[in-house]
């Protein structure tokens, strides 16, 4: 108990600036008042055994609890053992509960914990296919494996909580992950946006920084024989960036061509939006198919989506949405700006249907699918009100002020309204973001 008393003053001091200010309010679920937590640090050890074809995890979650209800977090794995503050904890008091269609299931820790004190939850479990919509299992081969975090924002429960304890995306915190592969018969490639320390053969320590949220970390593991790898150091403005492309063999486009595309995109966006915000590295994993995903300073992408996914390192994973309700604007501005989907002057004059891209459910964990096309029209209409040149300049300024921070739709709306000195911004957001006729 002594360690908690020693830590309490430090925790109380940091609580004033906690991420909980952006959290959804407590909600009654299954007769329990569920309340968000503020994760301070996550640590995990992940061991793959290619001989037994099993994976196991031991994790430690350090968090601050609200005094408003029972702590809530996400983890889509079946637990074997749990301890809370170094004492055994019954698994039936860590169950998944249904929070509704837009949120899916979350775990409720059935204990009213004191606020202002650092709590520690230790968990053990076998890593298997997550209990989440359209989740992907580990692919086992003879003496080898393929593994991918496989995130998506279009389905609930498909961020970090698939594999490890996590929070909604308002919460940023450091994450230390140790990965080891046992009994591998072939060399494996690790692709990640973490800082990596090699501890041995097929043994790595990954450190994800304190501004990462549940959608930020990228991990892909597969046999070296299945990919081609090439890197290039580029200069974008005053920054030197090492761009690494890991291309699956079945992708017909050459790694050189992909590096050329990535270099052009990073230079273009550095010039138009501001300097690359993710240190000195850019990690790119390329595959065939239509699915692509953005991460902080990294992407798993198809060839055709590469430019779009790289722009997310400015909007989406540079400036970050504070909730899934806010996630409409990073897809919308990406489609408008990087993909060039612009309204014509005639289209902008037509009022169009009111659309609610921003859900009225603060626990929502699904980005509205209309955010891409109809969301891009929001910026198209703004460009005709103020001119595209002014809008682009203001969005660049907004990025530079808020890079690597989480922000809300209201933050963006008020910023643009102040820059434009016009109520037209509020009118456009009212109809085409909040769905008010």
List keywords for this structure.
437 residues, alpha+beta, Immunoglobulin-like, Zincin-like, Neutral Protease, domain 2, twelve-stranded mixed beta sheet, five-stranded mixed beta sheet, 23 strands, disordered N terminus
Structure description:
The protein is built from nine helices and 23 strands. With 437 residues, the protein is an alpha+beta fold. The chain has three domains: 27-217, tricorn interacting facor f3 domain (Immunoglobulin-like, Sandwich); 226-311, Zincin-like (2-Layer Sandwich); 320-432, Neutral Protease, domain 2. Strands 1, 2, 3, 4, 5, 6, 7, 8, 9, 12, 14 and 15 form a twelve-stranded mixed beta sheet that branches.
Secondary structure blueprint with pairings:
Elements: H1 2-15, E1 27-29, E2 32-49, E3 54-65, E4 70-73, E5 79-84, E6 87-88, E7 96-98, E8 105-108, E9 118-126, E10 139-141, E11 144-148, E12 175-182, E13 188-192, E14 195-200, E15 203-208, E16 219-223, E17 227-236, E18 239-248, H2 255-272, E19 281-286, E20 293-295, E21 298-301, H3 306-311, E22 319-321, H4 328-337, H5 345-349, H6 373-386, H7 388-402, E23 405-407, H8 409-420, H9 424-432
Parallel strand pairs: 2-4, 2-12, 18-19, 19-21, 22-23
Antiparallel strand pairs: 1-2, 2-3, 3-9, 4-8, 5-6, 5-9, 7-8, 10-11, 11-16, 12-15, 13-16, 14-15, 17-18, 20-21
Helix pairs in contact: 4-6, 6-7, 6-9, 7-8, 8-9
């Amino acid at each position: 108990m002594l360690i908690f008393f020693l830590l309490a003053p430090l925790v109380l001091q940091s609580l004033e600036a906690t991420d909980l200010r952006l959290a959804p309010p407590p909600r009654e679920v299954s007769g329990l008042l569920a309340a968000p937590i503020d994760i301070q640090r996550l640590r995990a050890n992940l061991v793959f055994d290619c001989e037994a074809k099993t994976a196991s995890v031991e994790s430690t979650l350090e968090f601050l609890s609200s005094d408003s209800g029972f702590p809530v977090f996400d983890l889509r794995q079946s637990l074997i053992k749990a301890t809370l503050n170094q004492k055994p904890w019954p698994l039936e008091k860590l169950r998944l509960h249904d929070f509704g269609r837009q949120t899916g299931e979350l775990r409720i820790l059935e204990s009213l914990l004191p606020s202002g004190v650092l709590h520690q939850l230790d968990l053990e479990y076998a890593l298997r296919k997550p209990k989440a919509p359209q989740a992907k299992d580990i692919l086992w081969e003879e003496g080898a494996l393929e593994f991918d975090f496989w995130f998506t924002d279009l389905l609930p429960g498909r961020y970090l909580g698939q594999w490890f304890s996590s929070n909604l995306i308002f919460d940023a915190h450091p994450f230390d992950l140790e990965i080891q592969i046992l009994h591998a018969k072939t060399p494996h490639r690790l692709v990640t946006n973490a800082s990596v320390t090699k501890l041995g053969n097929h043994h790595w320590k990954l450190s994800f920084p304190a501004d990462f949220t549940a959608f930020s970390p990228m991990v892909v593991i597969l046999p070296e024989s299945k990919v081609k790898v090439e890197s290039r150091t580029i200069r974008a403005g005053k920054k030197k960036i090492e761009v690494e492309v890991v291309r699956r063999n079945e992708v017909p486009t050459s790694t050189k061509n992909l590096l050329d595309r990535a270099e052009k995109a990073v230079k273009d966006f550095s010039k138009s939006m501001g300097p690359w915000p993710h240190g000195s590295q850019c990690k790119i994993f390329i595959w065939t198919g239509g699915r692509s995903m953005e991460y902080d300073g990294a992407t798993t992408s198809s060839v055709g989506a590469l430019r779009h996914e790289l722009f997310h390192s400015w909007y989406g994973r540079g400036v970050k949405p504070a909730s899934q309700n806010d996630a409409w604007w990073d897809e919308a501005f990406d489609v408008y700006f990087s993909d060039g989907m612009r309204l014509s002057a005639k289209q902008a004059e037509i009022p169009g249907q009111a659309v609610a891209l921003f859900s009225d459910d603060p626990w929502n964990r699904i980005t509205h699918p209309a955010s891409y096309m109809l969301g891009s029209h929001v910026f198209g209409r703004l460009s005709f009100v103020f001119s595209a040149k002014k809008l682009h300049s203001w969005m660049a300024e907004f990025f530079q002020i808020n890079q690597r921070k989480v922000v809300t739709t209201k933050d963006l709306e008020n910023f643009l309204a102040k820059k434009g000195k016009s109520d037209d911004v509020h009118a456009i957001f009212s109809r085409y973001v909040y769905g008010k006729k």
